[in-house]
Structures
1.
Amino acid sequence: MEYKYICDVKAYDLWIMAMKRTYRSVVGVINIVFTVAMILLLARFWNESNSLIQGLLIFGCVLFPVIQPLCTYLMCIKQLEDMPRDMVLTFNDKGVHIDAKGQTQLLGWKKIANAIKRKNMIIVMSDDRHGYMLTNRTLGDEKEDFYEYLCSKIKG
């Protein structure tokens, strides 16, 4: 059996993954606690503070819910610029064939560490930090069958 996909990763896909990773960790809890504390401080001291302090309170309230996601999205755009375009991934019995910018590489199944299924994508991990993202847009109706195929090859 063979599956062939063109990687179509958008900045939004990277942003969603980064935000989920942030808010599923201790950092996300700290962000939420900080934002709630800033809102409470704003409500308590708004009338008694000068315009500088009011500005800092407002900045503290929008830091994590607005500014951090915006900066993360901008970083995802920058990261996407460094990624190769029109990368074709072919999965067959030999492994994963990667074709990008005219260069071809074969990763045997022993070099594939894991396959992670998310709601909006499947990530094929080549090691603990690097992987190939295949979005639902790319996978279409084959997502479940492809994931089962990956799992059988990785465990086999």
Note: The mean pLDDT is 94.
2.
Amino acid sequence: MRTEHIHQRIQRGAIIAILIVALVHFALRIDLAGSWRYDIAGAEPNVIHGVQKVMLGRELYTDPQQAPFDFVQYTPAYYFVCGGIGKALGIDAFDVRSVYELSRVLSLILNLLTALTVLLIVRERWVSRSWGWVVAALTFAAFSEHFYSRADSLYALLFALSLRQVLRALDAGTARAWALAAVLAVLCFLTKQTAVLLFLIVPLHLLLDRKWRPLIAFLGSAFVASLVGIALLLFLAPADHLWKNMVDGLKNGVSPNYLFDLFNTRSYFQLAGWHLIAVLLPIVLMRSTDPRSRFLALAMPLSVLFAVITAFKSGSQFNYFFESLVITFVAVALYSGPAVKEGSLAPPHWLRTAIILYALVFCVQRTVALRTWSGKFGSPATQYQTYSADKHVRDVLVNDLGLRDGEPVYVTYRGYLELFLNGNSLLSQKDIIEWSEDVPYDLSAFHTSMRDGSVRFVVTDAATDTIEVMDSTYTNYKPLRVVDGRHILVPSAR
């Protein structure tokens, strides 16, 4: 049997295996969407909080330094899309379980659309159908938990659409194509701030290739679209509120811990191959006369560098490498999978086989990681009990103790109760405050309300006679009632 046929059989078998693993990964995602877990996505409850505010018709961005001292970290697109669908479906904003499921299912659908968009990108370049599905499976496997129920899921779709339009514009070269690419890039930025990567790579490529008219069309259209976007944001809230929420709310500080852990553990193997490709493949692609190949040759190493730099942010995780992975997947497919090759750019059979086998290993690793990670947070029965307990406490506060809309309640622990009390709960994003090296807000008004007795209830998950918040301690509260292990306290002066 010829060596070429052996490689073809190995590649065919690996592709079938990748598609089977992708189906397993999809099944795990469906199971996770129905989980009773409080947080599957890293600050997921903070996102649910914002979705609830949209569904309740409340202002999305308020002053974090005034009661109820909450903030919304991301730009508004995901909140309005998810909240708008919830309202259209008639979901009650205080039916917390349904809001969670809505966000998780929506994110899963957006993840699938993102994978489909990446498939379309490579299929438009005469890539074989099998390689197109491989790239779609790789993209779906690359989603970390941050894309399971957060603004990241909508951002990923818009990023893929923006990348597709940029590649189309490089082929068409028309001002209209570049204008559409710019508008999509701005929409992407209005969903998540890391889309600034597009505004670094695209203009730089056009500048290096001396494509002055496309450069002017892209930047000019981006400027106009940005003005419209800023105007819409200012329609939602004053500029200082927007800044405090979307800029100050992201100041977690700088830490090399994630990168140190990543590069010093076996888990880096799932990225190492793609990073090696992102460094070496541009050497080959730069020889191409196709502007799309040359764009990807620039985009790959720059996107990896951008990911490493942004991963110095405290609290960073695998999701910071998503953009670089998608760009590399597309470039690899265009290099390895086309039925029509550019002669000298065709890879040898052994290299194509090595790439497809590494892709299989990546998909398996990501799926095993998802299975392992999703089983770390307690049994479904325990998770359901936590939900039921917080719901019971809300019912007691409202129905038995007469809690009214707007009356402040401070919940000392992270749980569903803060969401059941949306509008009443003070400092709901306390986890982000705790993660920040320096608290980004003046919370003196919060401390005053805790001292003067204006907080009607404090709820804790353990018996205590002192309430500790950041560097402050309060002893002016006394126990009132215990409900399912939660302790309700009231100001002792009352």
Note: The chain has 19 helices and seven strands.
3.
Amino acid sequence: MRFKNRGRKIYKTKEKNYYGKSPVGKAFSVGLTVLLLGGIGFIGYSVAEPIMKYTKKAGDSELPQPTTLPTEAPTDDSGNLIGAAESDQPATNDASAPVVETEAVLGFSLSSTDLISGDVLKTALKRIPEGSDIEYVEVPLKVSGGKIYYASNILAAKHSGAVQGQMSLSEIVSAIVQDGYKPIANISIFDDNITPATFPDMGYITLDDGSQWLDNAFDAGGKPWTSPFSQTAVDYNISLIDEISGSGFGKVICSDFTFPEFRESDVEFLGESVVSGERWQAMTSAANTFYEHIISKGSAMYLEVSAADVLSGSEEVLQPMTLKVNTLVVNIDLDAIRYGVFTGDTVYDFSGTAADNIEKMLDLIADDISGFNVIVKISGANFNPSDITKAAEAVKEYGINSCIIK
């Protein structure tokens, strides 16, 4: 199966039918129109001039403001705009239009422990299967929970204790490139319980007294979460993205666009916005902002989503008509789905082989991801390497040419 970008929909309006007039009627109409326009113009000028003089403030320019007139864009013999990028061409609903193939991304994902030192990283790169045509190495620079595994210079990251790694970005990139691979960065976004503990305005704040919200009682291990409604939290992620993008990572995967689980009692303290049906707008707005920053640095942004969350309908950031990013990394965690995926009254069984489960999941979420370029990420600590290899082969047989194994 091949996923195609459906493009934008084109809406056309229907033209109304008008009945023609006789030649005498047409002449009479034209004459009457000229007289009316002349009279309206005279009256308008007579009234407007004193009003304009009366309302004009001192210091207003008497010079007319420049006006930009529309010009006809140059086109070639085929009617295409000259000098326009492919994405600038008008959208078409022609089903026979050729599909633009994207670069195949075959990658291997490291773990955060692989970034302890340069020697550990070099050893980790030896785990990449030989003869697998793997070209890219995914590096988890900021992971779920908020820890950062490189020597970040962002003050908020250092002050909160989020920085765990000692290697610089340039050292990480150099080690990967010297081994013959290309690095891809992965940045967890809103699954962060560290920075809001130090900077409460990055998290969810109660309406009554402005105190910090926790996902459980403090003595029961309750944690704060960074909030997409917080501009401070968005700015913090932007600072990390700007630091990472363009530093040798040509591709940046942004993951964990997620909300915590809110209870009814939480809504009383935080307000209806945290459970509103429109809350996804905060996520997509942040994703689009990150996209602009990443491409401005010369890198490409990929958006990672959980296949299980897509199937259950809880991956709220996945809004094709709103998102600017067009490449998805669909993470199929074989460990997470092996006991089934629950979606309301339906339970989807994934008790087959790794390859069978991959194919079944792709079938189930095909409609949800069909408008994007798709990279499948396969993870599963309870499956042996041969199972993961067969699952990667199933992805290729399915018609998707990009895959990252973990």
Note: The CA atoms of residues 7 and 91 lie 6 Å apart.
4.
Amino acid sequence: MPVVIIAGDEEFELSRRVQHLRVSLVDPNWASVNFLRLDNPPLQEIIDASGTLPFGPGNKVVLIDRCELFTKKRTKGGDDAGRSESDSKSKDKEKLLDELEKSLATVAENTYVIFACPFNLDQTLKTTKAVQKHAKIEKFEKQKFYVGSPNGVLSSWCRTEAKSHGATIEDQAITYLLDGTEANLRQIAAEIEKASIHVLPGNHITYQVVVQLSPYHSHVFALADYWLSGKGKEALASAEEILTRQSAMPIIATMQTMISKWILMKSLCEKFNHDLPTPPGVLRRELPMNELVRRVAGELKAKEFMIEKDLKRISKFPLDRLIEKRLDLTRLEDAIKTGMIPESHALQVFLAG
């Protein structure tokens, strides 16, 4: 099928799948004319591009990158953005959707239209319903993972990744990589590739090998504890020690994952406390820690002892402060990627702030 929707919040696997399709479908000698990348374009531009034909031998690939057609976008007020559209705009969009559906139904045999969407697919949207009639859908949704909780899907992924490099990997090494990176597949893939080269001419990756090559993983949690406790001097010293063996980007990525998880957990705790019936004269009631642990663990389908450990870790860190620091880290990441600030300096700024 020449129309493919690749969607999901597992960015690494999604980007790798897009790259594989590009390499396998486009003749490299004709890539300059037969590969077209559009960055979240308007509907009319997609309609026009889907009607193009390959030039010369081989296929034409139209990549609709960072596509937002199949996910809900919300206004500051929390409502779907589409509800605020005028009637005329809404009618125009309906017409364009009809045209898009017709154009995708008649895509040429050697033209491939690939929608790369870094969001989980929303099956309720009109755009999704219109396009999926003519498309193959590939989902790459991020697996829920909590440190200390076994995950068969991710463990299997690690073994497959090692096999792609002609190697096998020890279960304890898999656990170390998953826990140390908070299941960041991009980081894990890099570590497995590095380890597979290190063990040559052998082909078995042991726990000792990954600890030797990736010692910083076991120290990121100590850094996070110092930071949460307000021990800026110790956090900076821990970061400096880690940076002697590893670049800052994997550390920043791990901190992003941790803070996102803590925001979710803290939000759930506030919701559970807010939903408690409050008798007259009582301003606020709070559930005991053991009950919060039970409810949050049930909601996230995680081990209670791991949830308890994290809730105690963030107990004195306000939710709004976590959100603020998550935004700070996102801005610093963007500054790194645009060359405005060195990554090691960005990490130090974050920890000192």
Note: DSSP finds 16 helices and seven strands in the chain.
